[in-house]
Amino acid sequence: MTSEHLSLQTTDHWPTSAYIHIPFCRRRCFYCDFPISVIGDRKRGETSTSIAEYVTLLCQEIAVTPPGPQPLNTVFFGGGTPSLLSAQQLAQILQTVERQFGLATDAEISIEMDPGTFSLALMQQFKTLGINRVSLGVQSFVDELLQACGRSHTVAEIEQAIAILHQAEISNFGLDLISGLPNQTLEQWHTSLDQAIACGPTHLSTYDLVVEPTTVFGKTYQPGASPLPPEEATAHMYRSAVAKLRAAGYDHYEISNYARSGYTCRHNQVYWQNAPYYGFGMGATSYVHWQRFSRPRTRKDYAHWVQTLIAHHGQLDCETSSNLDCLMETLMMGLRLAVGVPLSTLFTIGGADTVDAILNCLAPFQAQQWVELPTQPDGAIRLTDPDGFLFSNRVLAALWQALDP
Predict the structure, then answer these.
(1) Could you confirm whether domain 323-403 is CATH 1.10.10.920?
(2) pLDDT tens, 296-349?
(3) Which CATH superfamily is domain 2-272 in?
(4) Which of 91, 115, 187, 338 has the fewest CB atoms within 10 Å around its CB?
(5) pTM of the model
């Protein structure tokens, strides 16, 4: 990658999506390596000076960021636990976003929420402000597994949270589940899948546990060793999720994501299609004008970064993606999607020789039935479901080896 000083106002590739990071959590889950700030069980937006100060900084960053010519089509509040914000704080952020960028009339505005962190009244206020999609961090419907991974809620609170979503008439909500947890059995995984389906979400995400070295799990367990389920068990969990969720009427549209017809996550597809997006807040990453840049991962450093950004009138030192970077990012993200990566996209980035190299590299994986290769120029490269998705890392490693000069 090459580094250059660039004003965000001088080039194309404008985003129409924005991710907004709210880093506050009651506690840090044992698998989490996200940039968060732990505030305990008693504080939330109305009572926390730290949250109020952060919201002010966040709005300052948004307000100094140059807008593009089109309004935003998606906004995603992630974390952390955005449902710890007060309605007034969420309104402050959304009003700043709308003033600076504008919002499309049919914009998807999503928020991540944790069970036990919101009431019916707060959910109704969030809905009034424009929130029209909720992602609920359930992770498991088994209390001992919730405790084992450091979650701050119980199954009873999950059930209460889902009842609130239904009472508030949130028609578009998703649930997140994690497989491969310590001591997790296939029976427990099936219990979580069955109970999740019974709750009637429009969207379900199933993530296999990744043990990061800086987390509690990373300091306690060795990847692939007991009490973590063995690889063949987690593969079975993945296949069973595909079968159960498809049978329940969910479309497996991305390696870890399932949706009812018409309810795919529009925001996340921006990432998977390697399209541009704004990122705001501590630790967030932006992809603007073919350049990626990340913010500091601590609140103190982020505060200094925002003041520097203001002093430079929104101009940043960024890293510009090379053709190889763009090509690999397009393959890495696009092959997560069931629709795959169009040959025309790869041809535009790398040309005919590169496309030939990709097809030659993938031919053995087609023979293994992990990859589907197109027979027409207007076709797409796809991973098969479920085996291609399961072994996607091997396919991507081979592509990197074949394409890296």
Answers:
(1) yes
(2) 999 999 999 999 999 998 887 776 778 899 999 999 999 999 999 999 999 999
(3) tm_1862 like domain (3.80.30.20)
(4) 187
(5) 0.95
